[in-house]
Amino acid sequence: MPSPRSSRDRRGGGGRPEFLSLVSQRGPGAPDSPARRREAGGPAAAALPEEDCMKLNPSFVGIALSSLLAIDLWASKRLGVCAAEGSAWGSARPLMKVIEVSGHGVPWLLGTCYGLCQSHSSAAREVLLNLLFALLLDLVLVAVVKGLVKRQRPTHNKMDMFVTISVDKYSFPSGHATRAALVSRFILRHLVLAVPLRVLVVLWALIVSISRVMLGRHNMTDVLFGLLLGYALYSVVEYCWLSPLNAPALFALWSR
Ligand SMILES: CC(C)=CCC/C(C)=C/COP(=O)(O)O
Question: Are residues 98 and 11 in the same domain?
């Protein structure tokens, strides 16, 4: 049984805690250092503790991720050809900014609310109410992820965007890309459109997404993740689909 004295000794003289730095614990002269164990020989000598091995060899996943991020930064900078008026495709910047507005939250929210006020059929009301729910869910989700990840926008981005909120200083994921994927999937599922129009909807989503990198607003990974998130979010919206049966109060608000 350990004596009261020995436990006091471990804490250092006078009852004060004793601090052990990693250097004194792991230095070559330290009693339990790997080097000492190797010198001492014996079966346990060659086996390094797992934590030491991990420090010496950065993991493969870590290297792969940092390489991917480096490629992302490099390629996104090269593709940011409309990032400023003086950039390689600077003359296309005004057109890119029109495309940017076409995927912005404000026109989509206002347009959906306007449609709701004008709709006379219960089917249109149901679809538009769910579109409004989808757009709001998207805004909240993107804001939460941006706030958690806090990835800065590319250094070549000029922050001259139309109506932003505080988290929009961050870039991961691209809110325009999530909205483009979500809205286009929604439209393709709930609007009866001729094939050329369906193709146009898909093209619009792709152009909005590509324009984020060309304008220098985002890195490619922000946009790719945004597209995946928006696509997945549509499935959530469909799963929680609002109808007069499960949300009668909401539908009563818009019926006349
Ligand atoms: C203020 C409202 C209603 C929406 C903000 C829309 C917006 C500015 C999103 C940012 O998009 P990116 O992340 O693609 O730059």
Answer: no
CA–CA separation, 4 and 8 (whole Å): 6
Within a domain: 59: no
Give Rg (Cα) of the chain: 29
What is the rounded CA–CA span in Å between residue 133 and residue 114? 14
Q: Based on the structure, what is the number of domains in the chain?
A: 2
C-alpha separations of 233 from 8, 105, 131, 163, 248 in Å: 59, 15, 12, 23, 23
* Domain contains 131: yes
- Nearest residue (CA) to ligand 1, atom 1: 164
168 within ligand 1 shell (Cβ under 6 A)? yes
pTM summary value: 0.77
pLDDT in tens, 135-144: 999 999 999 9
Place of tokens 């350990």: 2
